[in-house]
Amino acid sequence: MNIHIISAVPELLESPFNHSILKRSADKGLLHLHVHNLRKWAINKHGQIDDYQYGGGAGMVMMCEPLANAIDELQQEKKFDEIIYVTPDGETFNQHTANQLSLKENILIICGHYKGIDQRIRDLYITKEISVGDFVLSGGELAAAILVDAIGRLLPGVLNDETSALTDSFQDNLLAPPVYTRPAEFKNIKVPDILLQGDPKKVEEWRYEQALQRTQQRRPDLLNE
To answer: Considering Cα of 114, then 131, then 216, then 175, what sign does the dihedral take?
Structure first.
């Protein structure tokens, strides 16, 4: 999979992509990440990519020309299955969307900044708008990192145990059950006996019951989807 990201502050993405699972996926050649500095396509020698809003008001807006030129140039090299804009007013990101996007080959993510991007870019280029929650970040870079992490870990071969992602929270609309490791007793709290008996079928039944109970208690809305 190839994921391209256009950012006004690409430095914000260096750490998330250079460690842990995402780095391993890149090292294995399973996920190719390309971060592009929008100022490469600035309208002048001063690196300008934003301007004042028409109609007045606080905050700057990312201009049409730099973003359009960046997208056009990248599209000449590669056909994107999705061009995603991360924005608070997009559809809420969830595991189902991550699953769908993990099946794509080429994705382009646009990171907004300031008051966002000119609406005409959204109208002309964007195929999907995604929000990571009902709150506002300083820019789209952290939201883009969340998308890449959630998508990337689903790619075959990225995780050492590929079945791990299939038992995460929100798969099958259930939260994950509680998990335990050594020691078998800690501060007078013991690991449930069923996990120590070595019966895989009973363990799976217990985990399903625990996942269902936890979902009913914490996220009953998931059971109605």
So the answer is: negative
> Taking all residues of the chain, what is their mean pLDDT, rounded to a whole number?
94
Name the strands in the sheet holding 32-37, side by side, starting at the edge strand that comes first in the sequence.
32-37, 2-7, 106-111, 82-92, 128-131
The answer to whether residue 220 is domain-embedded is yes
Cβ atoms < 10 Å from Cβ of 105:
10
What does the pLDDT read at residue 162? Answer: 58
| Residue 189 lies inside a defined structural domain of this protein | yes
Rounded-to-integer distance, Cα 172 and Cα 211, Å: 10
C-alpha span between 171 and 166 (Å, rounded): 6
Number of domains in the chain: 2
| Alpha carbon separation from 71 to 178, 201, 207 (Å, rounded) | 44, 51, 46
Residues 107 and 178 in one domain: no
Element (H, E) at 44: none
Residue 181: give the domain boundaries.
Answer: 169-224
Instruction: Measure Cα distances from 55 to 52, 58, 121, 207 in Å.
Output: 9, 10, 18, 57
Shared domain check, 13 and 123: yes
Structure tokens at 97: 């969307």
Judged by average pLDDT, the poorest of 87-96, 116-125, 166-175 is 166-175
Is the domain of 123 the same as that of 174? Answer: no
Are 97 and 204 part of one and the same domain?
no
- pLDDT digits 0-9 by tens, 169-216: 677 889 999 999 999 999 999 999 999 999 999 999 999 999 999 999
